[in-house]
Amino acid sequence: MVAKPGLDGHDRGAKIVARALRDAGFEVIYTGLHQTPEQIVATAVQEDADAVGSASSRGRTTTCSSECSSCSRKGRGRHRGVWRGHHPRGGHQDPQGHGVKELFTPGTSTQDIVRFVRDNIRAAV
After folding, report:
1. Quick one: average pLDDT of 85-98?
2. Residue 67 · residue 85 · CB < 8 Å
3. What's the gap between Cα 52 and its chain centre?
4. Per-residue confidence at 16, pLDDT binned at 50, 70, 90?
5. How many CA atoms within 13 Å lie on the side-chain side of 51?
6. Is the model's pLDDT at 87 over the cut of 60?
7. For domain 2-124, which architecture applies?
């Protein structure tokens, strides 16, 4: 599942990642714009998502971290957080401590993201 939390309307990165995963053979659910962490968690649980990718904007580190932690708790540890977003250099909190499996920053190749999901998510399901 690919989610776009927050109020900004910039979802191009989320759509690019969703398309790359789809083209690689994954079933992808895109939640659309302006999702709250609660909505993202509810959708992940309802859809029984194996992974949640969150394309966040600058300053959304805490929101995305809490969203991944909630997904892990409500999904009984089944969900793996895959988080991609914009962050100030050296200014983000450590997302891995909040249930985030990997952080992909701007400029990361979609093939690297697909490879990560293939190697880490499918193997854990």
Report:
1. 54
2. no
3. 4
4. very high
5. 27
6. no
7. 3-Layer(aba) Sandwich (3.40)
Residue with tokens 């939640």: 31
Average model confidence (pLDDT) across the chain: 76
The three state secondary structure string of the chain is CEECECCCCCCHHHHHHHHHHHHCCCCCCECCCCECHHHHHHHHHHHCCCEEEEEECCCCHHHHHHHHHHHHHHCCCCCEEEEEECCCCCCCCCHHHHCEEEEECCCCCHHHHHHHHHHHHHHHC
Q: Are 5 and 54 in contact (CB under 8 A)?
A: yes
Residue-range domain boundaries for the chain: 2-124
